[in-house]
Amino acid sequence: MPGTDPRPYLTDAKYPCGRDELLRAAAAAGAGDDVLGPLGTLPARDYADGDGVWEAIRSYNGAPIHDTAKEAP
Q: Which superkingdom heads the taxonomic lineage of this protein's source (predicted)?
């Protein structure tokens, strides 16, 4: 399983929020690379809550996550 459960580090995140807010909240809470690294790989979309973030990280199996938000239709 990649990374460590980020939910303890995301208690101050203002949900729904995107990857940048998740990274900010986790870093401010003292998260290490084992949390920040997987958060940084998440697609740039809004996450409803910490459980949704954890589910997205657990779904990551080492393959690059494709960010379709930057692609033209």
A: Bacteria
Domain ranges for the chain, please list them: 1-15+24-61
The tally of CA atoms less than 13 A away on the side-chain side of residue 57 is: 23
pLDDT in tens, 17-72: 999 999 999 999 999 999 999 999 999 899 999 999 999 998 875 544 444 444 44
pTM of the model: 0.77
Token pair for residue 55? 């589910």
Q: How far apart are CA 22 and CA 16, in angstroms?
A: 10
What separation in angstroms does the CA of 22 have from each of 25, 63, 71, 72, 73?
5, 21, 23, 26, 27
Tokens of 15: 């949900």
